[in-house]
Design goal:
single chain; mainly alpha; 66% helix; 3% strand; ICMT_MeTrfase; 208 residues
Length: 208
Amino acid sequence: MSFDFSKLLSVAWGGWTTTWPTQLLALIWLAWLASWVGASFWQGRTQKQVMTLESGRYRIPILVGGILFTPWTAEVLGEKPLWVFSNTGVYIVALIVLAGISFTWWGRLHLGQFWSNTITQKEDHRVIDTGPYGIVRHPIYTGLILGMLVTGIAVGTVTAMLGAILISLGMWQKGRMEEVFLSKELGEDAYGAYCRRVPMIIPFLSPR
């Protein structure tokens, strides 16, 4: 008995496109995910990283948030959107999400080989404080949080919005853990000074 992968793909794709306000948002996020995973091979050699058990402090809220964020959770709970955006509203949301995603890619490309999906110290690691890192200390998280929160609002279900909030909190926690780790590894004089100079997640706010 052969496995019909096309049927599984049809069910998965149908879930996203029938419960989200438009196929456009689903396409944007799927394209981002595919490109992000594909680029994961481009990174430098790791010298040191945070232990797996410690990383649970940010992985768990992101995982739970991700489950709540999916359309299947709303379907199982029989949940309906609290509101429905017009076509114009959806296009505005899509532009904001694209802006957030573009900011994540600007941050990743600017970081280059120092990027990692986990909290690590790479070979020859140094403080990067130019480009988007001169605006916020975690531009990748800034872009993702913006995109997730706006998408959750556009979807309009309580579970999607709660999922977006949990994912955002997980990213904020990961950012805090990164800063403690890098302050120890790169030195308080270097990374600590950077933290006192540049806002963490939200541009134009006071640092720290």
